[in-house]
Amino acid sequence: MADRDGLGALRARGIFVALLSFVAAILFAGAAAPAAHAAENDQLPKTLRVGTEGVYPPFSFHKGGELTGYDVDYFREVGKRLGVKVQFVETPWDSMFAGLNSGRIDIIANQVTKNEERIAQYDLSSPYVTTTGVVVTKKSDNSVKKLADLKGKKSAQNITSDWANTAKGAGANIVSVEGMDKAAALVEQGRADAFVNDELAVKYYLATHPNSDLKIALTTEDKSESVFTARKDTNITPAVSKVIDQMEADGTSKKLYDKYFTTKATGQSTWDVIKENFGSMLLATVKVTIPLTAVAFVVGLVLALGVALARLSSNAAISWLARAFISIFRGTPLLVQLFIIFFGLPELGLKLNPWISAGIALSLNVAAYAAEIIRSAILSVPKGQWEAAETIGMSRSTALKRIVLPQASRVAVPPLSNTLISLVKDTSLAATIGVTEVFHQSQIAAAPTSKFLGLYITAALIYWVLCFVLSIVQTRLEDRLGRHVAR
Hints:
This protein is an alpha/beta fold. The chain has helices spanning 2-41, 70-82, 93-101, 116-121, 162-169, 180-188, 199-208, 237-250, 252-261, 270-311, 316-331, 334-344, 354-380, 383-391, 396-426, 438-449, 452-481; strands spanning 47-52, 61-63, 66-68, 85-90, 107-113, 122-124, 129-138, 154-157, 173-176, 195-198, 214-231.
């Protein structure tokens, strides 16, 4: 009996040990999985900079001043599951891959279509949404029944997109636009015959623009797989792909899809859109446009004075360098200068943020134009003034500071004021490198609503008010400087 009891006790203890081992194995596996996952995620940056347009509804756009959209929400969830912070960098599509190549962004979330060229150049994630292309025409146009019917027609396309290649392959004449909203506007206005784009984006556009005169003429045969895109060998996309698989399995992907592609949205009146976005446009004016103008003008004037004096130097080498500076920055477009500084310099290891890049480009541009204004103003002062200063023992630098420049300033004020007014308007070009100034803010508001006229007029009025105030200041400054001048 005692042996039986002992045997039973041994059996019970064996079962207990087995259960403990089983529980320990489960706990160890559960702990090991996150540890492995964490080790894998340790290779990722703590903050992932994600490139997106911000003007491509329903994938990436602004609503109520906040960045939203299918791609935006999708990648926010990806970042959350990876345990990394997500920082969206709004970039025009044509500059998106330049930003990726220069290291300004780590990954693109903007409906990038998977193709052989991109497979060769970049690391691509698993597809997170699959769609197809559609050809859009005016409702009254029944001439496009197959893709080949685009031959000879004008198709409004973003020239760096896959849809542009589809239209071009069909023989269409490409009309370059920045986004689908502008393509739709050109077709409605009769300035283009059609455009090809993502079926989901087009259906969302038609749902949110019930009074649109557009229709889907046909669906293309090509299948578009959208992927997240990173630079080669960054080890970002494998981790992202695993999360995409998880989101597909647990139904998160479908919930996001239904949120943006099965819900009908209603359009807003132009006045409502202006009222909703006027505050953000004014804020962009105060926080970006005015400070950017002020900094660029002050720095540009300081540089201009140095360049003007170098231009007047008796040293041939110094004078030649000043001439070269003026020739280069007056003879090349400001937009090209912006792109060289923002996208080109990172190839040399110099990476500047958008605001500083814009400030440098604008300052150099101001310096080139203002240098010639200052030089001509100095030359307008009679030589007798220099001679008189020398006779009373003034050095050349003292004469310049106390005698020549005060007189030259009266001559320089009107043309320098024109330069300042032009600078206010030129800040709008900073939108191309992601600086959210007043014009870019109007573009953001116009993208999901297509209220181009009202919003662009509002932006134009803001610029006009700024320039009008500056013209009043110019007049008063001229009167003050000319108060003691003999008439």
